[in-house]
Design goal:
single chain; alpha+beta
Length: about 160
């Protein structure tokens, strides 16, 4: 708002000061020129101000996650942490639970595949499969239906099994 008022006033003042040594006839032309400049500057400045406030960077709104973040998102799920504690407690620390990214996004399948597994001394056993979108949305694999479902639906399935 200051620019809208300040710049035309400064230009009129400069033109007026510059035009003081002129004849009265040319001073009238200077005033009309100042009015012309004022009329041209105000709409230009308004448009410039509007343009600045309405622009934004699209890449800032759609951040993509990396492999490490996808693994962390799954590993930090309360259901996964609860299962890890139960297995470690029941095995008295002999079996560790971990997560690994088993698949990276491709043009045909834009998800990280994350596997939660029991790390036993002689083999690994998969507990859960998840897929994580590049924006961080997590879905769990329903092994009975062989399709990925929302975390809410997966949590409800876990509650029914207890």
């Amino acid at each position: 708002m200051k620019r809208i008022i300040w710049y035309p006033l400064m230009s009129a003042l400069l033109i007026g000061v510059h035009g003081q040594g002129m004849s009265p006839a040319s001073a009238g032309n200077t005033q009309s020129t100042a009015k012309q400049i004022h009329k041209e500057l105000v709409p230009t400045q308004l448009l410039a101000g509007l343009h600045k406030t309405n622009t934004f960077n699209v890449s800032q709104t759609a951040k993509e996650i990396d492999e490490k973040t996808a693994r962390s998102l799954v590993w930090n799920l309360p259901q996964v942490q609860r299962k890890a504690r139960i297995i470690q407690r029941l095995s008295r620390g002999a079996i560790k639970v971990d997560a690994i990214v088993d698949g990276l996004p491709t043009p045909d399948d834009p998800y990280y595949k994350v596997r939660v597994y029991e790390d036993q001394p002689d083999h690994n056993t998969t507990i859960y499969w998840f897929r994580v979108s590049k924006t961080g949305v997590i879905e769990a694999l329903d092994v009975i239906e062989n399709q990925y479902i929302s975390l809410e639906a997966w949590t409800q399935q876990l509650r029914r099994r207890r």
